Structure formats: C-alpha cells, structure tokens
Amino acid sequence: MGENKDLDTDDAEHTTWLFQQALARAEQFNIKGVTYRLTKGVVKNIIPAVASTNSTIAACCANETFKLATRCNPHMNNYAFINLIDGVYALPFEYEKDEDCIVCSKKPVTVKCASSSVTLQALIERILQQLNIKEISGMRASGNTLYMERPEPLRIATLPNLDKSLGELKLSSGIEVSITASELTHAVVVTVEYE
C-alpha cells in the first residue's frame, strides 16, 4: 500500500498491510500477541465487551419472550440482575415502591421558611432535616446553580451563596428548588414557601 493512500478498513489488502506494520513494530519492541484478527478489530473499532453484552441482552430478551409465550416460568416484571463473572446467572425480580420514599412516592415536598431573610445555609439545614438526609451535593433553582459540592471549582464559586439570604438569591415564595444528594437516586424538587 502506498504511503499517500487513505486506509480503507474494509479492504483486506489495506488491513494486511497495517497488520504487517504493527507486527514489525511489535517485534522491534518485543511485544507479543499482535494478530491479524486483533489488528482488524482495532481498525474497525470492534470492542469484544460490546458484542458479548449485546449477545447477553438478546438472549435475555429471547428467554423472556419464551416465558411469556409458554408460561413455563414467571416472567420478568420490572428488573433483572445479570451476573456474567462466574458463568451466567440471571435473576428477575420486582422492585417494590416505597410509599414513604421521597423519590419513589413523588409526593410534593414543601419546606417553610420564616422569610426571604433566611440564608441559603439555613434553608439547606431545614431541607436536610425534613428529608432526613446527611448532605446535599447540589442545589438549583430557575436554571441557576445555587450550590454544588463537586467539582471543586464549582464548590468554590457557589460557596459564598451559603451566607446570602434567599431574597438576595432572588428565591421568591413558591419557587421550586432541585436537590441532589448521594443518598437519593434522583433529584428531588422542593417547593420553598415563606410563612
């Protein structure tokens, strides 16, 4: 293959040339394991993990279809756990909804504050107490980031907001604030109301 030609990954001659170049380089540096198949996989972006994952999911889908059609076993209701480390182990089970969970129940959460003079830090403490969580990792309202624990530059930028009043931050009564926390699987929307 000429030096100025573009590499065509579907052309066997081009892939062979590339394999020979890779093999020569590997021998020069005493690298073992370079094969034509591996070279072709790298050139065509073939990732073995993706293929095996796709195959596993396809097999699970076929298995569930078979169970639905024949009623030979209970079918998956809403969740399946698949372990491919030591052979294949699949366990379908149903996640149960916890009506007391603020994420599962999607019940509206309202936090009351004395007035707009309350600081963001005081609001966070009230939210922590009401939601029964240890810490908040992020807080947003009206498209603005009020506080973020990480990354560090964002934490430093939003740290001064903790000492500002809700009025200074333009958080009016009835505003919805999105809360994220490591203890929560999803963001929770909290309505802030002044008494």
TrEMBL record:
- Entries under SMART domains matching the protein: E2_bind (SM01181)
Name the UniProt key words of this record, in alphabetical order. ATP-binding, Nucleotide-binding, Ubl conjugation pathway
Task: Extract the Pfam families matched here.
Answer: E2_bind (PF08825)
Q: Which GO terms describe its biological process?
A: protein neddylation
> What does the record give as its pathway?
Protein modification
Q: Which residues form the E2 binding domain?
A: 112-195
An example Gene Ontology molecular-function term: ATP binding
Q: Which domain of life is it from?
A: Eukaryota
- The identity of this protein, by name, is E2 binding domain-containing protein
